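ugh ok fine here u go
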Amino acid sequence: MAFDAGMVACLCHEFKNTILGAKVDKIYQPSKDEIFIVFRNGKKGTRLLLSCAPGTQRVVLTEEKPENPLTAPMLCMLLRKHLMGGKLTAISQPDFERMLLFTFSCYDEMGDPCVKYLAAEMLGKFSNLILFDQSYRILGAVKTVDFSTSEKRQILAGLPYELPPKQDKVNPLCESKEGFLQKARDSSQAADRFILSSYAGISPLIAKEIVYRAHKTTNKPLCECDLEKLWFYFDSIIRCVKENAYHPVLIMDQTGKAVEYSFVAIEQYGVSVVCNCYESPSLLVETFFETRTQSERHRQKAADVFRLLSNAETRLTRKIELQTKELSQCNQKEEYKQYADLIHAHMYLIKRGMKSVRVQNYYSQSGELIDIPLNEQLSPAANAQWYYKKYNKAKVAQTELTKQIAIAKADLAYIYTVFDALTRAQTTAEIDEIRQELAEAGFAARKKGEVKQKTLGKPLSFISTDGYRMLCGKNNMQNDQLTFKTADKNDYWFHVKNAPGSHVILCCNGEEPPERAFTEAAKLAASHSKLADGENVPVDYTKVKNVKKPPGAKPGYVIYHTNWTAYVSPEK
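structure:
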């Protein structure tokens, strides 16, 4: 990601052509790290976003309309007090740093003209927005820094504002050919590391691009470089900044994911990426961060659902193990009944206080003697009743445990179907549907303020070679909707055999589809299942009218008895 000084210079040039000379109309602070300033030039309003959130720090023009809190934060009130009605008179980039300095012509409390400054420092985790007056006295900041946090630079109201500490690097806008060549001869680093360590404001992407343009590779030791050629391409990129000859570009991989952006064309990736050019650098940066934010939101939501499923899987697996162990102990119930019967038959041999008694076992064909443990504090009759109670308890427990183990195994099988749906979820909306499904199934609590979705997303839709429509559910709720609400009773239903997967409907339109349509629908069901990487995958298919849902069954669970099975190899 390259929000470097070159990109800042590109944005600064755009701002000078759009909002310079405009007046501050409105100021919002929807979150602690973001400020929106609405500039008005005549009837036209332009919205400027200043964000110092770590990882997404930027200053761009935007069409976004934030939802504002009912009560404005203190910093927002301070900015309104000092900047509202003020005129933006200058925008600068001090020392080619990753920061912009906005100068406003305002009026103080007495109505006298004054100057106020707003510094937007885009310095990674040290990013900040700082308001100060014409005497360089800090009035407020998004992030305050005291002596306990930093000994080098404090940012507190009342202290003088100072520019960020300079690194031991040269401003590339002021570099000469002789200076560049001399530094290169004195260095033993790789070419891109030399540029990064010697010049301020240059990102790793641009350093590698300079080396690539000079030698068609990004990994080149400086000692093997043609220094004259390296200077030529270094100077050509720096000249783009000096002459405001920018070519903003967004770099996307083959999947459509935004990976980089720059203020100049990037050649080092070759044909492995797609480069989209933008006239507006603000639109470019907003597109990049919007894509990145969506991707991050998708990852976080998927991780949240995955954690819920993992916890449920662990809990159910442990429950099944414990209950299976208890069930094995219930196999002694017949032994308890025999003990009770034998105690009754040999009551005359037993006295209170005995710890055991040896009697003849009438249940054995050989009639051998057997030792029966006794509770010495109970009478002979009470010992018999004690064993009868243990027998009845084990009998009831065996029935109940068998039932509970079956329920737990069904729940675990359901969890595996949700795991499978999560691996194929591609959007946050699909993940939200899966989480809603878990909430309705009792495996997750609804989040505070979360509203149940009334409608589900659309299932995947395909057309077979012979023109028949095929529908594929993305999760269990969509599977139920497809099978029992969307499909006609004479359509064909497909599902991979004995494994989690999507329900696939082959829409017949009152006709009998050809064999090829059945094969393609079976491949579709196999490729949207847990067995998608297998070969000769068994897929059951039958008419929709033969598929039933048992009362109280979990989403996606169905039963069927009349069916055929096809063996296919999944295709992406």
